[in-house]
């Protein structure tokens, strides 16, 4: 055999580096064992599931639960909710641990006794939504702690909504309840006590209900797409029979030598697990055997995330300007604060720059003024000096003139004096002559 | 039946009820597994070791394929990390495998900072996950996890002991990642030396307090094999992608003149043990440990750094909202304080500058006052000089006029005398 060569599939060549290169392996590596490892760990951890049942009293909710889980969840020691008289709508939890095939399941059933039983049923859904929200809140807080432990998942994973078999359509209460809860929990609507309707009536009723559900844009639990053709066929069959019409029973009756759960009537036995009689088997298979995990995943990835993002958006943008584009919601509150901090730094920088500018300008102004006044004063000083010098010159001139005049005159005087002297001398001489 | 974590957590007050038939929830693990298989798995390995210890070859051998990459030279200036992601498939299981290699580890003269880039890389992956987890709108279920699940630390086959670089690096990494130390190129060590080497390494690790990854022994189905393997740590491995014909089979081996080292022969090296432990038995546990232990530790430290607490001073637990609001108020307060400080600073500067300018103005005026005074003094002097000149001129003028007057008188007298004489002469 030649040395191993890598076989790059066409897809990989198209995808290139970012997706990772597709490699075909020669020889057994062993990570195909990973699913087994996951299996092992999940069994060791155990499973939990919370199921909520909602409906008016007397619709057979407790009986159905007992039938689904083949146990006496509600028994004489633990009476079901309908046996307790309620004035207002309550929300009650019962937890049981059930084991099967090495798998442990912590099952929580949430009852809503009193729902729809009052004369005025306005807001009877409020305790229900409050309960669901409080479970989300608990999970959110647990998830957000600094020290986190293994978080128990007590969120409501599924809500079975019981519709009374009136044969006509949904009651206003039904519509209102489902509209309020379809974005908080997976709703599976059921037609209770289906053994009061003939198959044709049931068919009609189902069609009517689905029509109304679509009209009111209620989002009931939807089965996920799979690649498996077989599975898709099965899912489509189930979808055609929605909402499921169920019958529950705690009693075992013998029919044709078989022991089955059913309801004994004078005209026959309505068998719970008979697919021709009701959709119980479909419900059980779907709820427990095939889609339990998906119900939990949808609760975690969709309903819980909705709750969380709404909660955190309120906290983050509390007091912050609200022209958020959709993009902003991808940030965590901390990232939002970081962003605001950066914006603030930029703002401060700008403010600083502006203040600097103003400062510089004012300083320049003042300095200019100072300079101007200095120049002014200097000029004046020069002026005065020149003035003084001019006057000095003038004085000099005057003095010079005076000196000149003085000396000229003095010279004249001296000449005159000289003349006078000479004259007097000559006169003296003449006088002397005359005398002789 | 052993009790499960969930059962333990539920505690007292939860009754166990018997089932009257087959309900069907025992398919839950299968449902879970199916979903995981559909989603695909991901695993990230970090290989730390000096250049030339056969890291890339070992990866190729482990996963039976040729990964990319050129052998690196020894002249790298620092330690960098190169990561490559591959999509592998085995039967129906898809694995997104990321192999991260340290390039240039141990090649520098000063290796004090070698571990830093590795720690940084690991922290960066944690940070990315943390950021995603903290986002408001997040998509954790489809997030490509890049956190390192296993760190294979390659020890050079000196046969003596661990190098100090090894101890330092492993000590820095043991709280951040699952460390699996392996002796590389172990075909250079003889069997007896190997036993001593392993003992030495283990004791050095223990005495230095390095926490290496222990294969878990709490799950009874794998406890036995895991505890056996734990005693064989560190694994001495040989890697090879070349095949040699032994008997009538082609096996992965290294051919020497004195014999052939078969990679998958358990007498020759621990390769099979490593593959068994790392991939076939404990891959999921490695991922879980990374998420629940190492990542949580990182997250806890990071949040505490940022000032988050679980309880307020009165030991009442904070709700998420309270925590964030408190943080936010603190943050806003900080920003405002900064703004105030800056303003104050400016006010101060303005004041100072004004004082300065005033000083300058005062000096200027003083200067000119002095000049003015000088000037006035000069003027006074000038005035005095002028006055004295004027006085002189006046005196002179007076003298002049007096003299002239005298002269005129004299002339007149002389004139009259001359006249008299003339008159006398005539007579």
TrEMBL record, chain A:
<dbReference type="GO" id="GO:0005525">
    <property type="term" value="F:GTP binding"/>
</dbReference>
<feature type="domain" description="Septin-type G">
    <location>
        <begin position="45"/>
        <end position="314"/>
    </location>
</feature>
<keyword id="KW-0131">Cell cycle</keyword>
<keyword id="KW-0342">GTP-binding</keyword>
<keyword id="KW-0158">Chromosome</keyword>
<dbReference type="GO" id="GO:0030496">
    <property type="term" value="C:midbody"/>
</dbReference>
<feature type="coiled-coil region">
    <location>
        <begin position="334"/>
        <end position="419"/>
    </location>
</feature>
<protein>
    <recommendedName>
        <fullName>Septin</fullName>
    </recommendedName>
</protein>
<dbReference type="GO" id="GO:0005819">
    <property type="term" value="C:spindle"/>
</dbReference>
<keyword id="KW-0498">Mitosis</keyword>
<dbReference type="InterPro" id="IPR016491">
    <property type="entry name" value="Septin"/>
</dbReference>
<keyword id="KW-0206">Cytoskeleton</keyword>
<keyword id="KW-0969">Cilium</keyword>
<comment type="similarity">
    <text>Belongs to the TRAFAC class TrmE-Era-EngA-EngB-Septin-like GTPase superfamily. Septin GTPase family.</text>
</comment>
<dbReference type="GO" id="GO:0000776">
    <property type="term" value="C:kinetochore"/>
</dbReference>
<dbReference type="Pfam" id="PF00735">
    <property type="entry name" value="Septin"/>
</dbReference>
<dbReference type="GO" id="GO:0032154">
    <property type="term" value="C:cleavage furrow"/>
</dbReference>
<dbReference type="InterPro" id="IPR008115">
    <property type="entry name" value="Septin7"/>
</dbReference>
<keyword id="KW-0547">Nucleotide-binding</keyword>
<keyword id="KW-0966">Cell projection</keyword>
<keyword id="KW-0137">Centromere</keyword>
<keyword id="KW-0995">Kinetochore</keyword>
UniProtKB/TrEMBL annotation, chain B:
<dbReference type="GO" id="GO:0042742">
    <property type="term" value="P:defense response to bacterium"/>
</dbReference>
<feature type="domain" description="Septin-type G">
    <location>
        <begin position="39"/>
        <end position="305"/>
    </location>
</feature>
<dbReference type="GO" id="GO:0061371">
    <property type="term" value="P:determination of heart left/right asymmetry"/>
</dbReference>
<dbReference type="GO" id="GO:0003140">
    <property type="term" value="P:determination of left/right asymmetry in lateral mesoderm"/>
</dbReference>
<keyword id="KW-0547">Nucleotide-binding</keyword>
<keyword id="KW-0342">GTP-binding</keyword>
<feature type="region of interest" description="Disordered">
    <location>
        <begin position="406"/>
        <end position="427"/>
    </location>
</feature>
<dbReference type="InterPro" id="IPR016491">
    <property type="entry name" value="Septin"/>
</dbReference>
<dbReference type="GO" id="GO:0005929">
    <property type="term" value="C:cilium"/>
</dbReference>
<dbReference type="InterPro" id="IPR030379">
    <property type="entry name" value="G_SEPTIN_dom"/>
</dbReference>
<keyword id="KW-0175">Coiled coil</keyword>
<dbReference type="GO" id="GO:0035469">
    <property type="term" value="P:determination of pancreatic left/right asymmetry"/>
</dbReference>
<dbReference type="InterPro" id="IPR027417">
    <property type="entry name" value="P-loop_NTPase"/>
</dbReference>
<feature type="coiled-coil region">
    <location>
        <begin position="321"/>
        <end position="399"/>
    </location>
</feature>
<dbReference type="Pfam" id="PF00735">
    <property type="entry name" value="Septin"/>
</dbReference>
<dbReference type="GO" id="GO:0071907">
    <property type="term" value="P:determination of digestive tract left/right asymmetry"/>
</dbReference>
<protein>
    <recommendedName>
        <fullName>Septin</fullName>
    </recommendedName>
</protein>
<dbReference type="GO" id="GO:0060271">
    <property type="term" value="P:cilium assembly"/>
</dbReference>
<dbReference type="GO" id="GO:0071910">
    <property type="term" value="P:determination of liver left/right asymmetry"/>
</dbReference>
<dbReference type="GO" id="GO:0005525">
    <property type="term" value="F:GTP binding"/>
</dbReference>
<comment type="similarity">
    <text>Belongs to the TRAFAC class TrmE-Era-EngA-EngB-Septin-like GTPase superfamily. Septin GTPase family.</text>
</comment>
